[in-house]
């Protein structure tokens, strides 16, 4: 995480202050349950809520204590005891630090997931708006970077909408995967703490009890979460690369918004560069990379080791903050994207008529020409357009083998653009639903 | 994929024969729909099914044709035409090769997913059986590789069961993600083929129509699929490493089955090595690695490029065949695992009584000693056990600060193993359900 | 590895036949050294070379034996004994299977590295030839996909030449890293085998003795090797993507050779797609991915475990065969690349004169205008070219603030293309040397 | 990067203050060269050094300017102009921001590499000291986690020393790879700046001129650098995992130093956990992960895009700071490692005499028993030790097939530990040299 690529709301989730506050709440909720069970006095639980709730935790002080104990939760509990007084001895009864740390991480990751879901919703809204705006804006579809057949710019955006709808659904699954609470004590046997405590804390924090924990919440959950973020980042990369392509000087069918005062290059004042989507391409590489250590974290030794911890201290914030920033930046890019339908039309006609080659091919086969012969007929005329700049329609009309099979009117009819856009409504209905 | 780590049923999914057969079925189903729509003669569709259905596709011959056309689907269609005769010209009308290739890949991946689901079911059955067998086999739980507190070997296996239940659920999601059919023609506009054809073929093949394709099925679907396999492989690694640890000479609480005639080492005849789980550890690294290129495949250029294809030709078989093999091998390991409860007991008692330190700590705090003082009291006696081989119970009974707070009977009671296993039933109920 | 992306010479390195032959040679060379030391009879060593050298190893038979022993080296030794007779008991004295396996892998990897070095040499030759051919072919340089300033196509290829020269040097280092021989016996102490044997075998096989092995050759060596292949693959990706960009319909400055009979698309006969470089893009993703498990292989347990083995059985062939194929394919692409200087010129002039904006900026600052003002002056005229299709030179000449600082002749002089290519010779000398 | 895992000297390299200072120096050195060439006044160059050299750059102010210009180098130059006055217009003549940014990154990475080299030297010193200390401390060597044959603890550390010597050499190569300077102007043609400027700046900064740059320094250099860090991190992981294994409760042959006041567990006061090496295991995963985006950065579009930038802003600091911290932590662990030779001896004798099985095997074969029979003889006695806790020597002496081939004295001689350590000096000489 670096400030340049961060937004405050997501950053806040990962601040020490937030973390200590969540730790406190986990401990205090657990005290309530312990009091209910008669393990600790009810009054103690009340005092803990009151005094701890009012406390302002001093991060620097906690760090000092940790420098001695080399244990962060013990440092926090020591600090907390200073506020709570003698009743502090009832805190953390039968619990182990992982109960606090892992449940806290679950709270942070679910909050992060909620922000990311809101980010995706905003992106979906922008994509939908622009998709409908350009539903009928004809543009050339390209396979292999080569002109293929016409499509519409709205369909391109509908594809992105469908892709991020899937991203959303995946994130919902991934959120469920990490939304569990473990208060099961050392090695997860509940020997020193009744399972009821876990159920109570889980409920209070909007989590589910972890069915079986091993002191820690199993890390396959987190691996799945970060792998999902990596896939979402890859979808960001795809849309970003699409825009970078469209903004190429020779293509220029769309362009990132260029604000007044912005400078594209320190040396070349004429430049307007797709720097936001290039930036997103790089950020996607980062979020994707974090999936690997998350997967390597799964195989902890026996009931747990702590090798996952340093990884998560880094990728917890890094992956969620970067993805949050990237989604928001992409939403801005889509929202303000400059679209140039005239250039789309100009590009479409660059190789005059060539994009209609398939229709001619199909017409020939339907007129009884074998597939192989039809292909050869069309290809030989197409290559003249490609290599010599000829007009495809004229070449076809001059080819006797072609006119032997198709009438002039038939051939001409194959050059109608409307033919390619007749199912746009169907596609939009599939993607956006009836409404 | 290498034969050593392959099983025939999964290998068969990826054979050229299977692929060509699926290609044929996609084309033939499409012909049915086209015939229904009146685009091609009904008789032609029938002929195609009959003659193509009876054909034995010659892989070598198709490869020869491809060497000229440099296009695999065209090579196949040319070969197919030889069987079908003149009606062959009605095949592939308005379709593009991606319609065939991507839908075929969806069929192959869903079949592969079905095998993998069956593999997981077999593993779950083995885990469940062994978990119940060892539900009450007390063993030491370890955090950081260090003795922590007692648990049971059944709980260890229950954890693995819960983890692979999650793996199963994730695979079901991942299977849904790639189970779509695209017959949408060049750049996905349905210009040359009615959406009905896609719906028909999808239904026949047990797939859903892809809401919006861009000539290809979007690759975020496949990225999610392979990322999920990577997470499942990581769970395999975890259980494998657990077993490798248990088989260490100094631990020897469990051991891979060692068959008669097997040789552990060419040089040292005394060796019995956990080679299967070591092998699984390596295989897990491979399956995990394939997630990366799958994610990089997402950002195809515009409506599609073909950079994903070489990746999928490799990881399609490699990831599924390797994971299938690994799951089956792990099932065998669990099924036949030699378990040594006596060694578990011996290890548990290695540092005499030390594993009960937490209980004494809690008793002291409940008797009014502050948490910090209690920790210090327990730790100073524990270190004598650790460093000087003393007996923990004896040390505590000899420590006047301890006996000032707790009676001898109280202290003795803290050394009861049953205390740690009292919630095993709860845990099993959570993991395996009531039944 | 799949046949589609393989070349026979590299495949042969990884065949079982080659492997068994190398195993035999390691054993036989070791016997020579043992005979010299008087550990085994000299005659036995001779017999082993004679009978083993003439033997045709039967892969299927060895596999059958392995199915029982579950140990590949023992299976091989048993098979070998059948040819050698009673003297076979002198083979493998004091050695462990890793001595054979790891030294064999070193032989295979060095041979693979030699092929790859030859591949790079061929690529460098092609790049050099085409670079000199197009040394003065002016083309637009692009940053961010946006026209920047003129360069030459030869410089582009010189960059690639310099990059693959670095790739070559890295591979030489990586080859050194894995070219070691270990014949050190169980846990690497030489307890049962004199270090002289290792020295002898190393010398015979063109390797260096591993200074300290732990039964296995340390895997950081292999990690470095495969990581280096990953970096080389990334350079292949870069050049491939350059070509894919140049072949885009709107750019069309270069094109992969399109052979007679080739078909670009089953549906669209007009297509000529950069399928080879797209394919290389995908293959690069794969070779890169193999670096990860190679790095995870480093941390074997204690003196060794066998988790690295399954990984290496896969990535050993997969990475080297794929990279060999990719380098050769790229060489072919470069060799036959169709280059279109006229299109380069046409593209260069697309935004009339805009690429000279920096020169005007510099001239203004040198004429006393502040950098900020100069930037503003140039940018405002550039934007008119960009947005309204104006001619940059005309706009500048009509801008009074510009002509107040610069004479008309001065301004005109800034539009000279030769200005940009004046250091081509310097650059070529730096890259290709004086010759 | 997070403070917890950072050391100040490495952090300082990546501070904005350092960056701006390097930027200034690059610009000022370039001005000297430009003045020498007569492009700008000599006096201007002097003024720039004087006023810029004395300036305190205001990071917050530069960020504000960047918020408008959206260009960091322009923001800096604007800020710098405020200090320098009118002569500021002579700064950055003919340069592009990449000249500054990429050369700055080269300076930062070489400085980082120098710190890392010093870190490795410190680690090597610690390893050497402890290796000689324990050169003759006999311990059991383990393959597959299973007792194999005796070795010494010094040999284990010698292996680590050899491995980090290789790491050092690799880092030297990687440092060379990124130590280049590019001052070549837009698209790298030197059109607006004489190559002499690059040579001058390179010399002043201890770099080499980049033979051919494309506005940016080619990213294969950085990919190789970060891949090398990943391999080094993997070596850290290996040594860390060795220590974690040795500290396992059942093994306890070595232990991380446990400081007074340290608490191993909040719940279990008896715990002493290998938390430092577990932490290092996690950090290694992170450094390794950064190799992937670095490799993906290679394939920039045409002469450059800026997708690499966000990646490098993150992994530049993250990888070097984390690796610096990890190397230093590992050095501390080695330096203070508690070693328990008595436990090593106890473990070695756990399966009484079993570790000598190979010697007996060899003696049998040399006495004329076939390899297969000898293996069977030894294995059947070994299994009784393994399974029934028998004494290996006694079993052998009681086995008539064994005593038929070997005398009692012969058999007894095979149980001598000194046999296994006779080549320790040779190994140490190979690793540490003659001294």
Automatic annotation (TrEMBL), chains A, B, C, D:
One of its GO terms (cellular component) is cytosol. One of its GO terms (biological process) is 'de novo' IMP biosynthetic process. Residues 352-432 form the Adenylosuccinate lyase C-terminal domain. Gene3D superfamilies: Fumarase/aspartase (C-terminal domain), Fumarase/aspartase (Central domain), Fumarase/aspartase (N-terminal domain). Its EC number is 4.3.2.2. PANTHER family: ADENYLOSUCCINATE LYASE. This is Adenylosuccinate lyase. It comes from Manganibacter manganicus. The lineage of its organism: Bacteria, Pseudomonadati, Pseudomonadota, Alphaproteobacteria, Hyphomicrobiales.
